[in-house]
């Protein structure tokens, strides 16, 4: 596109070199804290508190060992397992229920369907901190405090809006003729959904799965209030030390690295769908 | 179009589980929060909850300086963080908007902060902003400045959480504006150029108005998400020093789960839900899916 630069105003219009320079500085700023997490997790204590900061040091793995098995009594391992359980199950539920309701609302006339759709979308804006008081009392009432199920149900409900928005677009793009043909072949409506429609929106399911999983994996506030020990997730473990971590930066950063690095890979994979997923599809 | 009995049954099976779940975990908690907020409801007191009418709300509006402070701090945080993110993100979108080798890779890499665990973001910035061994101060001294007590000075503490938020979310703003830029139809600009508009005029009269929806979307989403932010405060400042970073979510959290005054926390939660709902309804109906 030769006329590309037309969208750029004179004042911001930059030569190629200047673009590279600004972009590189920005990327450096974006990546630097990751470098700090990883490098600190590989340092011995005296290097961690060194002034000036030590850029060259001998890396050690001790912090990871301490973080996994020792740090904070039990180490992070049980929390890691809780995180994986809660993330996986809530993601499967959110994507499953989300796909069902999206398909139901796109393909059938449902009473107040339009309102249901807007209602589901608007739950994206529900501020978790405003819900923790009633949710805490509700979970306590039914005996689900400090359980995986309690967290899983809440995360599922929190991720539904995201799933519905993204998957709905995918369902709408399926030619209705394909589904009608399947109907003529004798499929019931539900069979058309499971055997014809669902396989066709697989890319959408993968995208929403990753996004939902990241949300559940990262969530802190709900987890820290609804769990004590049995079902506590990784962010709860990290948050638990924030007051008293004075000297434990090494293992602490090691846990941070474990919490953040897997997500980084997924973020790069997701690129294309992030805009749509995070802006309600308002920007494609 | 009338639907067969089988179609109706299928629709019910597909729609109801999600709707029931949201009724239970989204609508009911709002009603319940209103109910709790009308009571003296303390987890630390042995007495059962006692009806209090609008007492908690009256307390909030008339006597609670901490609540007013929290509203103000939240407002300052939102305006500063979202404002800077929008300006920076907007400008950077134009920087990335060129077909140059390697620029796309850089743009993709810049997106990494967006999905990082907020608690870890707070943690690493807490470490980097440390007065004594933090790398931020090392950079400052490198350029001949004094070390700054980022986390213990009132104004600087606010600036610190703003910096961490900017780090995480500027790439998101860039991504959205960039995507919007890419989707602008080229012929509009060609026509404008043929009409003899200068580049400056094209920017103000064509590009900017065309980007307006995207800017609005990202502005509302960022503002609402900044309003709920609690992790950075939790890790970096605990609301301090002297309430300078005590945003509303942090105050609700401390009232509800450190002071165990659930009734009062619920009243603040209701206020927060009302504010967010008004903004979100306008957003969802008018901007996200205009019909």
UniProtKB/TrEMBL annotation, chain A:
Question: Where this protein primarily resides, as one coarse class?
Answer: membrane
Taken from the UniProt entry, a GO cellular component term is: plasma membrane
Tell me if rRNA-binding is a UniProt keyword of this record: no
Listed transmembrane segments: 20-38, 79-104, 116-137, 149-167, 249-270
Tell me which Pfam families the record gives. BPD_transp_1
Q: Which InterPro entries match?
A: BP-dep_ABC_trans_perm (IPR050901), MetI-like (IPR000515), MetI-like_sf (IPR035906)
Please give a single GO biological process term from the UniProt record: transmembrane transport
* Compartment(s): Cell membrane
Specify the protein's topology with respect to the membrane: Multi-pass membrane protein
User: Which keywords belong to this entry?
Assistant: Cell membrane, Membrane, Sugar transport, Transmembrane, Transmembrane helix, Transport
Superkingdom of the source?
Answer: Bacteria
Question: What residues does the ABC transmembrane type-1 domain cover?
Answer: 80-270
Q: What does this protein do?
A: Part of the ABC transporter complex MalEFGK involved in maltose/maltodextrin import. Probably responsible for the translocation of the substrate across the membrane.
Q: Which PANTHER family match?
A: MALTOSE TRANSPORT SYSTEM PERMEASE-RELATED, MALTOSE_MALTODEXTRIN TRANSPORT SYSTEM PERMEASE PROTEIN MALG
Membership in a protein family? Belongs to the binding-protein-dependent transport system permease family. MalFG subfamily.
What is the name listed in the Swiss-Prot or TrEMBL entry for this protein?
Answer: Maltose/maltodextrin transport system permease protein MalG
Q: Output the lineage of the source organism.
A: Bacteria, Pseudomonadati, Pseudomonadota, Alphaproteobacteria, Rhodobacterales
Automatic annotation (TrEMBL), chain B:
Which stretches are transmembrane? 12-38, 70-97, 109-128, 156-181, 202-224, 262-284
Q: Which InterPro entries match?
A: MetI-like, MetI-like_sf
> What Pfam families would the database entry show?
BPD_transp_1
Q: Residues in domain ABC transmembrane type-1?
A: 71-283
Where can this protein be found? Cell membrane
Broad class of the protein's primary localization: membrane
Record key words, sorted: Cell membrane, Membrane, Transmembrane, Transmembrane helix, Transport
- Bilayer topology annotation: Multi-pass membrane protein
- An example Gene Ontology CC term for this record: plasma membrane
One Gene Ontology term from the biological process aspect of the record = transmembrane transport
Which family is it part of? Answer: Belongs to the binding-protein-dependent transport system permease family.
| Protein name according to UniProt | Carbohydrate ABC transporter membrane protein 1, CUT1 family
């Amino acid at each position: 596109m030769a006329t590309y630069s037309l969208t750029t105003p004179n004042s911001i219009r930059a030569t190629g070199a200047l673009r590279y320079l600004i972009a590189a500085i920005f990327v450096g700023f974006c990546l630097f804290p990751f470098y700090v997490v990883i490098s600190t997790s590989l340092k011995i204590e005296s290097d961690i508190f060194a002034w000036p900061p030590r850029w060259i040091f001998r890396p050690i793995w001790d912090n990871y060992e301490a973080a996994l098995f020792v740090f904070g009594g039990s180490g992070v391992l049980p929390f890691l397992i809780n995180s994986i359980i809660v993330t996986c199950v809530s993601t499967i539920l959110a994507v499953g229920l989300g796909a069902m309701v999206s398909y139901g609302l796109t393909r059938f006339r449902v009473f107040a369907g339009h309102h249901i759709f807007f209602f589901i979308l608007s739950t994206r804006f529900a501020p978790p901190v405003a819900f923790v008081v009633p949710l805490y009392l509700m979970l306590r009432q039914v005996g689900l405090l400090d359980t995986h199920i309690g967290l899983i149900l809440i995360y599922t409900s929190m991720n539904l809006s995201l799933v519905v928005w993204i998957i709905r677009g995918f369902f709408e793009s399926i030619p209705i003729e394909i589904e009608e043909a399947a109907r003529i072949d004798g499929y019931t409506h539900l069979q058309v959904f499971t055997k014809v429609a669902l396989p066709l929106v697989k890319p959408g399911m993968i995208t929403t799965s990753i996004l939902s999983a990241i949300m559940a994996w990262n969530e802190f506030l709900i987890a820290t209030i609804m769990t004590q020990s049995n079902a506590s997730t990784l962010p709860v473990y990290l948050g638990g030390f924030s007051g008293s971590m004075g000297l434990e930066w090494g293992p602490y950063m090691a846990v941070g690295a474990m919490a953040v690095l897997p997500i980084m890979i997924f973020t790069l994979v997701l690129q294309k769908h992030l805009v749509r997923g995070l802006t309600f599809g308002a920007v494609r | 179009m009338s639907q067969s009995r089988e179609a109706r049954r299928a629709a019910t099976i597909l729609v109801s589980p999600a709707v029931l779940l949201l009724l239970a975990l989204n609508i009911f908690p709002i009603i319940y929060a209103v109910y709790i907020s009308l009571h003296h409801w303390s987890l630390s007191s042995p007495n059962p909850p006692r009806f209090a009418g609008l007492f908690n709300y009256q307390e909030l509006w008339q006597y609670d300086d901490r609540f007013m402070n929290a509203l103000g701090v939240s407002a300052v945080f939102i305006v500063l963080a979202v404002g800077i993110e929008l300006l920076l993100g907007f400008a950077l979108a134009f920087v990335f908007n060129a077909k140059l080798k390697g620029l796309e890779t850089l743009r993709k890499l810049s997106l990494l902060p967006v999905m990082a665990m907020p608690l870890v973001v707070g943690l690493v910035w807490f470490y980097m902003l440390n007065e004594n061994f933090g790398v931020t101060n090392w950079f400052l001294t490198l350029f001949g400045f004094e070390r700054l007590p980022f986390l213990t000075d009132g104004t600087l503490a606010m600036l610190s959480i703003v910096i961490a938020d900017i780090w995480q979310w500027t790439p998101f703003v860039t991504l959205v504006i960039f995507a919007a830029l890419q989707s602008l139809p080229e012929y509009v600009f060609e026509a404008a150029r043929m009409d003899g508009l200068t580049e400056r005029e094209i920017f103000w009269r064509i590009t900017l108005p065309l980007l307006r929806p995207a800017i609005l979307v990202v502005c509302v989403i960022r503002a609402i998400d900044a309003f709920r932010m609690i992790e950075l405060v939790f890790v970096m400042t605990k609301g301090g020093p002297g309430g300078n970073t005590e945003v509303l979510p942090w105050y609700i959290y401390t009232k509800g789960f450190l002071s165990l005054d659930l009734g009062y926390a619920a009243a603040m939660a209701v206020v927060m839900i009302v504010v967010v709902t008004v903004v979100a309804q306008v957003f969802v109906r008018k901007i996200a899916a205009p019909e």
